[in-house]
Amino acid sequence: MSRELERYIALCVGAKPRSEMTIAETRAAMLGARRHQAAFEGPVAVADALANGVRVRLYGEESAGALLYFHGGRFISGDLDSHDWFCRELAGRSGCRVCAVDYRLAPEHQFPAAYEDGLAAADWLRGRADRLAIGGDSAGGALAAAMAGTGFAWQMLFYPMLDATSDQALAAGPWPNAADMRRGWRAYAPHDETNPLVSPLFVVDSGKFPPTYLVTAEVDPLREENLAFAARLRAAGVSVEHHDYPGMVHGFALMTGVFAQAREAVQTAAGALRLALAEAG
After folding, report:
1. Options 79, 84, 102, 220, the catalytic residue
2. Catalytic residue among 36, 71, 83, 250
3. Measured distance between the N- and C-terminal CA atoms of the chain, rounded to whole angstroms
4. Of 106, 185, 203, 217, which one is least surrounded by beta carbons within 10 A?
5. 250 assigned to active site
6. If we measure between CA atoms, which residue out of 69, 64, 59, 58 comes closest to residue 279?
7. Catalytic residue among 77, 82, 138, 206, which?
8. Phi and psi for 51 in degrees, rounded to 5?
9. Could you tell me if 155 and 209 are in contact, meaning their C-beta atoms sit under 8 angstroms apart?
């Protein structure tokens, strides 16, 4: 175990297990986790807008290339503020516009509400950029992958939720575990587990996906399904750039104030986004 991971565990001593939190507590904890993020100091223009009725936040100046981004939070938490510094840094380091989507959350709004919000935002963004990439982390990665075959040049996924039927065991710790993932799936899509628009691992034609940038973490209940997804894409002839971070936990990329590997992951992803959208042109 790395010293950074040991320090993170120490920071979380006494915290209530995520899978035992109420929805309100989960949402508060997601916002509270911003204390683990390092502020991005570079100048980035930020503006809120409505994209066909869906609230979005735009980072960076208007440009020919843009990334449509979906925040994580297991479909039940997270918002534009929880991922604000993360999106600022992606935009600032890549030089590409980032459009973060404030999609409707479960359990108040079950599938297909979040997916439909994503489609609406995508249609809006297509009228404002020539080259589009799509991305997301955790639950946001599921939404991004579900939409990726609808005309995007590239997808960027951070430890995405891809299989609502999976139940990977993972040692207990102060990070999302299998029980927490199951709770998110049950809230979002209790009757659509194998629908490919819910669980992208069930997509029959994996060749429809665009070139994919995949980030995985060693201490993550989603790691095995992420690896299976990458293998299927490669078998279908899809280009996959995979970055696996040893000793890291689910959600680590937002903890740039705690983990050096988080800072590396965001910087590397921003460079890949810049290159991908340049090549797409």
Report:
1. 220
2. 250
3. 43
4. 203
5. yes
6. 64
7. 138
8. -110, 95
9. yes
Q: What are the contacts of 225-229 at 24+ separation with CB within 8 A?
A: 225/162, 225/163, 225/166, 225/168, 225/201, 226/157, 226/159, 226/160, 226/162, 228/201, 229/145, 229/160, 229/162, 229/200, 229/201
Question: Over 70: is that where the pLDDT of 173 sits?
Answer: no
CA angle 249-252-254, nearest 5°? 160
- Measured from the Cβ of residue 6, the count of other Cβ atoms closer than 10 Å reads 10
pLDDT at residue number 171:
59
138 is catalytic: yes
Query: Where are the extended beta strands (E) located within the chain?
Result: 46-51, 54-59, 65-70, 97-101, 131-137, 154-158, 212-219, 240-249
Burial level of 41, CB count in 10 A (0-12/13-18/19+)? exposed
Range of the domain at 114: 3-280
Sheet-wide strand order for 131-137: 46-51, 54-59, 97-101, 65-70, 131-137, 154-158, 212-219, 240-249
Nearest Cα residue to 109 out of 69, 84, 139, 131 = 139
Which pLDDT does position 169 carry in this prediction? 65
CATH of the domain at 82: 3.40.50.1820
Q: What is the pLDDT of residues 55-95, one digit of tens each?
A: 999 999 998 899 999 999 999 999 999 999 999 999 999 99
Q: What is the pLDDT of residue 174?
A: 64
Residue with tokens 């380091």: 93
Place of tokens 């690896």: 227
